[in-house]
Amino acid sequence: MGRSPLPASTELLAALDRWVEAGALRALDVALTRFIAEDGDESDPAVLLALALTSERNGHGHVCLDLAGALQNPRLLLGHLRDDEPLNPTVRAELSGWLTGLSLSDWTTRLSASPAVASPAVASPAVASPAVRARLPIGSAPAVDQGPAPFVLAGTPAQPLLYLRRYWRYEQQIRDGIEQRLAVPLAVDERALRGQLDTLFDPAPFPDQQTDWQRDGEHNGHPDWQRIACGLAARHAFFIITGGPGTGKTTTVVRLLAVLQGLAAHAGTNAPRIELAAPTGKAAARLTESVRSEAQKLPDADRTRGGIPTQVKTLHRLLGSVPDSRHLRHHSANPLPADVVVVDEASMVDVELMAQLMDALRSDARLVLIGDKDQLSSVEAGAVLGDLCQRAERAHYRPETAEWVHKVTGHPIPPALIDGNGGRLDQAIAMLRKSYRFSEAGGIGALAKAVNTATEPESEPESDPEPAQRLHTVLRLFDAKQDPELGVILRTPLADTNDPAFDELIRAAYESERSYLRTIRDQAPGHDADQHAIDHWAEAVLAAQKRFQLLTPLRQGPWGVEGLNQRVIELLRAHALLPDSGGAQATAGTPMGASPRQWFAGRPVLITQNDYGLNLMNGDIGVTLSVPDGPSTASGRRLRVAFPSPDGGVRWVLPSRLQQVETVFAMTVHKSQGSEFTHTALVLPDTSNPVLTRELVYTAITRARERFTLLDSNEAVLGDALMQQVHRVSGLRDGIHE
């Protein structure tokens, strides 16, 4: 077997240092590789390169390195650390040259011989889960639990996967937690369940529409998927409810919780202890509001809503995150005292946090994940919800599952969604397929569907539209007659951020009588106002702030958060749209996009790191206001930052106490997840970029409730984004689908 033209280890490490200077690797990636070379007595350049690439891939959100994929397509490896700069082609050419001639079997053999790499050998197959047994150990490397090796070589001989050890363990925790809950369907009193569903939903199925299902196999909203989801979830200790915006995910989960309480009451057992959680503070606040609203609509609401939590926690708070530490108060030795845990916006949950949640659950606790499988994945490594929902579009319900659903819910499963070879996980997923907010006839709903129309992982490649056809379909929707009832969609060509069209958009958004800057000025309380009046004003400002949000895929550069925030501030000042601070100032934190670096009235800020002392979570948005302060200051006013309170009120924080914040006239699409705005405007850069994906565009569109504006200068950039999907390498789904 010939060896690849790799340099000696010392030369390779020197080359990796150059890659750091070029922005292709993090210093952390090379430091780890160098440590293993120098302190771990590893001198094989093929091994060192694999370790560096595994760490690099982890930094880009991948759980592991797909060795076969790396050899087949080296161009998918590496990426510039600045999202607004392309990678030096010399770096990628150097990597491709190194990988030339390195065969998969040779690479795995050399990795297996390394003391830095362990194998997930199962010491006691009799007690191991089927999924772990199915993942064949490769080579003769020491078993994971037999040494301190920091990497794990797992997967199969045809698709070996190289992990950092802790990420391999995270996947095992998640997989084992799911499999343990899927092992046997829960016993359910079917008659009682049917009664609960008839109470909460329209008891009459749609027999006249069954002929349509038989004829065309379509699943265009005829069955009551919310009812089906509640029925299926009642018999599973692990369940996923996925669906796009407006499909009723929150409605469904509230009714599911009512069903579980009703079943417990019928059986004469204690009502289940329920915890609701979300990944970020703003997602938790939004779910809190939605749950309270939906609970009021329940039949016999006074009885049933008492068991539904009125407060949604962030996942970190639920698990008992310890400040300045990676430790959590709840884990396998001190599990959560909950019978049912529901996690909303699950697409944002990374593999580490999901593993920590699994570890903190009692073995008999139910876990329900809620989210949109088509949204962007988590910022950190992993795409847990996307991995688990890969087959959700076609459902793959077994015939016996379909028969049970028909008997209990009264709704037959469309034949196209029935599969005699469906896996266990398939039976524990329900996809809500009808949007009650948007119509697919036009506007926001049609645009989201057109962007998201894609080849499913299991479908035939020829079913995917050609790039030009997809782009034409999307652009044509912007030219159609706009109906406010469907959500208005607009497209504005933009040469750059100095384009008058950008100025016009910003002025229109912030000069509006309903904008939050107008609310600050027009409703500002006088110097003698009491605290109630000041709080009421702040609440109105915070509500108005959600009316418009500028979104961008990038952080750096003129098209990124930094440049756009700076430009918006310049325009607002030029048009005298920023409110007068009344002489009040405060210098603190790092106000991204603000110059000079001072706090000012009207400045919207985004919390970028959990602050448990202030009870502010990553993702919380506040607005800086000049509030009456009596004679204690020369101006009689002082700057304070108002944040929404979980109980519906307002919290006031001194700017000097806020260190981890960003100005947020513009925010990244990633940061917008878990939020909704009346009007969102997505700014695309003038050149294509690896971060521009179909999922990103879809996520930006679905943040809008009434109006979406696309600002772009090159339609080819949009076309490239529509054809590029997020693919994060992991081994999570292997085995569970069986």
From TrEMBL:
Record key words, sorted: ATP-binding, DNA damage, DNA repair, DNA-binding, Exonuclease, Helicase, Hydrolase, Isomerase, Nuclease, Nucleotide-binding
Cross-referenced Gene3D superfamilies: P-loop containing nucleotide triphosphate hydrolases (3.40.50.300), RecBCD complex, subunit RecD, N-terminal domain (1.10.10.1020)
Gene Ontology molecular function: 5'-3' DNA helicase activity; ATP binding; DNA binding; exodeoxyribonuclease V activity; single-stranded DNA helicase activity
Residues where ATP binds: G243, G244, P245, G246, T247, G248, K249, T250
Residue ranges annotated for the RecBCD enzyme subunit RecD N-terminal domain, each copy included: 21-127
Nuclease found in the keyword field: yes
Similarity comment text for this entry: Belongs to the RecD family.
PANTHER family: DNA HELICASE B, DNA2/NAM7 HELICASE FAMILY MEMBER
Role this protein plays: A helicase/nuclease that prepares dsDNA breaks (DSB) for recombinational DNA repair. Binds to DSBs and unwinds DNA via a highly rapid and processive ATP-dependent bidirectional helicase activity. Unwinds dsDNA until it encounters a Chi (crossover hotspot instigator) sequence from the 3' direction. Cuts ssDNA a few nucleotides 3' to the Chi site. The properties and activities of the enzyme are changed at Chi. The Chi-altered holoenzyme produces a long 3'-ssDNA overhang and facilitates RecA-binding to the ssDNA for homologous DNA recombination and repair.
Protein name per its UniProtKB record: RecBCD enzyme subunit RecD
Record organism: Halochromatium glycolicum
Gene behind the chain: recD
